[in-house]
Every structure is written in structure tokens, then in C-alpha cells.
Amino acid sequence: MIKDIMNKIRSDATDLQLVEAVRKNNNKSAFGIICNRYHEDVINHLKAKTSNNLYLKSFIDDAASEAFIILWESIIKGKYEEQGYVKAFLQKIAFRRLMKMSNQNTKPIGNGSEINDDDNYDELNELLDEDPINYKNIADEAFKSLKQICKEIILLKYYEKIDDTVIFEKFPELISIRNVSKRRLKCMDKLREKSNEILKQIK
Amino acid sequence: MDTKKIQLLVDNELSGKKRADFIKEIKDDAKSKQELAHLMKIKEIGRSEIRMIVNTSKGKTKANPIAKYSLASIRRAAFGNNQDSAVELTNLPIKDSTLNDFLNEED
């Protein structure tokens, strides 16, 4: 009951309340309200900053989407420290992302310095792309072969960083929190096993 | 293979020399690369769910009204200098009085 109330969020909630709802419960409705509220503003900001340059314009939609994803990840990882200044954060990230997309030569590569989340993601993808074995495709196939419950538990734990206690609330059929953790580890083992199978077939 | 450390790398929780050294280590270790691919795939799928929320909100935002015809095309249509344009005066979505006002306006 308490959880239901916490999950209900009004569309006129303040940015701070929305950010808190995402942080505490990974509340996707709250995040949806943030997206509704600022998507157009971010797009317009990018258009204005790029003076409607046709080349840059082609990256605007993607850059804006990436900015919202980075906002989501920053909040759920507890890294978001801008309090209520969501719009400014989104505009800043979206512009940085736009510049990076339009100028791929400015990538920072493992030079030992601090790196942004989005640059980190790109660099690790490049590390995998360099290998003659397509590990990304193998992982994709292996993940697809998992049972739905495994996919969901893995995503909740490893992407959304949700505790086993909360995962248990979503999957009471697992009977205990300990079982959630066991099941999660089993699911990851299944993923690895399947990947190994695919890899053997390739070799 | 150190899954926890790879997860830290994916989450961008490693920095400086630790990060650089670990990336070098992974480069030469097939098992670690495979695990990195798993964790990156999980991140990618998670991100695609969030992207869907963003895209749904995109549809809900009101588009800015954009004029169908530019002033230049109206001017060309009005003064018969429209060989390059398919815009015909009769096709313009404006009321006659507005067009008259526009045509009679002094530059």
C-alpha cells in the first residue's frame, strides 16, 4: 500500500520531487513526467545553440535522447547532484553529446584521466568492436535465450541497481530474498554457458 | 575474471590508472571480454527501455507550429517570379484579405 502511494506521482510535482521518486524507487512514471516536461526544451535549446545548422540538426534527436538516459543513470546511481536543476543539466549534457556525435575525432581514449559516463560507454563498446570475435552479438543471442524472469531479474539488478529485497517484492513467487540472489547468480551462469556454447559453434 | 570489477568499469566507477590498467588487462583476456560484453548488453537493453520512455514523451510534446510557406515563397508567388517553386498563389493557405494586406504593404 505504502509502495503504491510512493509510486503514484502527480504530473505537477516539482523537479526535485520527481528526481527523488526516481532515486528512491526507480519510478519510471516520474521519469516519464520529466521527459514530457523537458524534451521539447532540450530540442529547442540544441536548435538554438547550433543556429539550425543542417549537419548538426541531424544529431539533435539522438543527442537529446542520450541526455535523458544519462540523467536516468545519474539519478539511479546516486550521482545526480544538481538537485532541482534538471533542465539545465539536460541541456548541458545534450549539447556535449551533440558535439561528440558530430565530431567523432574528439574521443578520449584510456589516458588514465577521469572520463564521462557516456564516453566510458563508447570506449568500452569500441574495445569490444576491435576484437575479431563479435562478443556483442554472442551476448545478444545468449541473453535472448534466457527465460523472461531471468532477463528481468538481471536487468533490475545490474542495470537498475535494485536491491534483492526490492526485487523480491516484484517476484514474490521466489519465496525468499535469498532465493532471489541464488536465482540471479544462476541466471548469470546460464548467460555465460549459452555464450560459451555459441562461441564453440563459431570456432 | 573479476565480474565485480568489470561491472565497476561498465558503471564508470573506476578512474585514473586503475581504469587504464584494467582496460589493458581485459584487452588480452577473452573471458573478461566476454563478461564485459554481457554486462554491456545488459546496460544496452536497460538503456533501450529508458529510450522508449523518452520516445513516448516525444510524441506527447506539442510540435512548434511551422509556417508551411516562407515569406520569400509568398513573395515569389505573388510577383510571378516563381519558376523554381511549385507554390501557386491560389494554393497559399492564407485568407485573401491577408494576402492583399501583404501585397499592398510598402517595403
Short précis:
The complex is a heterodimer of chains A (203) and B (107). With 203 residues, chain A is mostly helical.
Question: Could you please describe the fold and organization of this structure?
Answer:
The complex is a heterodimer of chains A (203) and B (107). Chain A is mostly helical. Chain A folds into 2 domains: 2-104, Rna Polymerase Sigma Factor, Chain: A (Orthogonal Bundle); 135-202, Arc Repressor Mutant, subunit A (Orthogonal Bundle), CATH 1.10.10. Chain A is built from 11 helices and no strands. Chain A has helices at residues 2-7, 15-25, 28-49, 54-57, 60-76, 86-102, 117-129, 135-144, 148-159, 164-170, 177-202. In chain A, helix 2 (15-25) crosses helix 3. The longest helix of chain A has 26 residues, at 177-202. Chain A is flat, with a radius of gyration of 20 Å. The N and C termini of chain A lie far apart (53 Å). The relative contact order of chain A is 0.08. Chain B is an all-alpha fold and 107 residues long. Chain B has 2 domains: 3-60, no CATH class; 71-104, no CATH class. The radius of gyration of chain B is 30 Å and the shape is elongated. The relative contact order of chain B is 0.07.
CATH hierarchy: architecture of the largest domain in chain A: Orthogonal Bundle
* SS strand fraction of chain B: under 5%
Helix proportion of chain B: 55-70%
- On the 0-100 scale, what is the average pLDDT of chain A? 86
